[in-house]
Amino acid sequence: MARDENGKGLTREEIRNEVDTFLFAGHDATASAISWILYTLATHPEHQTKVQEEIDRVLAGRESDRLEWDDMPKLEYLTMCINEGMRLYTPVPIIHRQSTKEFTIDGKKFPPGTYMSIGVYSVHHNPTVWENPHQFIPQRFSKENTAKADSFSFIPFSAGPRNCIGQTFAMNEEKVTIARILHKYTLEADPKVEVKLKAAAVMRSLNGVYLFNKPRH
User: What pLDDT is recorded for position 40?
Assistant: First the structure.
């Protein structure tokens, strides 16, 4: 029933396309992100411990270990680690766009209808944008640093009017899944397996991601 400023609503095809995006964000891309974030925390135990301490504080004194909707904003350090994990291992490494009007880049004009591929992974690892781009530093996404950052320097869900409609849904899926796992287990990466990236529609591992889990309680 939504309408834009001109009173125009979505067509049935547009509604279907948005639902497809929700399903994609809630399935393949989110599963990829969760896998890589867990792997990153397993290989950075000091950050994993901080996340576990935060989860323990949120769930302290409860009979159930289930997270509630109101708990989501309280998981601040986990959110920082999720964002930094998606920066390092960009779930959707490339996005595509088609221009609707003429535009100019570095003095070269491009006509309407130009197709463009945007290397999101490259943006997230650009040393002119990110200092020490290959290091896992969750503090990059503190409230203070985020307020100072360029809004197009971190685009795991794309950006602008065509950004991912399911990004809030996907972020909350990641928070709940990762928090439930780390509340119960401490993760360690298998030192015998060298994980190798494979960029496709979503970021995958060429040879899998192998983790050991140890019960915490």
Answer: 97
Contact criterion met (CB below 8 Å) for 182 and 85 = no
pLDDT tens per residue, range 32-64 = 999 999 999 999 999 999 999 999 999 999 988
Q: Let me know: does 124 contact 88? Beta carbons within 8 Å.
A: yes
Q: What is the DSSP string of 86-146?
A: HHHT-SS-EEEEE-SS-EEETTEEE-TT-EEEEEHHHHHT-TTTSSSTTS--GGGGSHHHH
132-136: average pLDDT = 97
| 23 phi, psi to nearest 5 deg | -65, -40
Phi, psi dihedrals of residue 81, rounded to the nearest 5°? -70, -35
pTM recorded for the entire structure: 0.88
Task: Give the chain's mean pLDDT.
Answer: 93
Give the tokens for residue 95. Answer: 């996005």
The rounded distance, in Å, linking the Cα atoms of 90 and 93 is 5
Q: How far apart are CA 95 and CA 158, in angstroms?
A: 7
Pairwise CA distance, residues 74 & 216, whole Å:
21
**Of 123, 129, 165, nearest in space to 145 by CA:** 129
Q: Cα–Cα distance between 54 and 136 in angstroms, integer?
A: 19
Contacts of 97 (CB under 8 A, 6+ apart): 115, 116, 118, 162
Pairing of strands 94-98, 115-119: antiparallel
Question: In this predicted structure, what is the pLDDT of residue 26?
Answer: 67
Per-residue pLDDT averaged across 71-83, rounded?
97
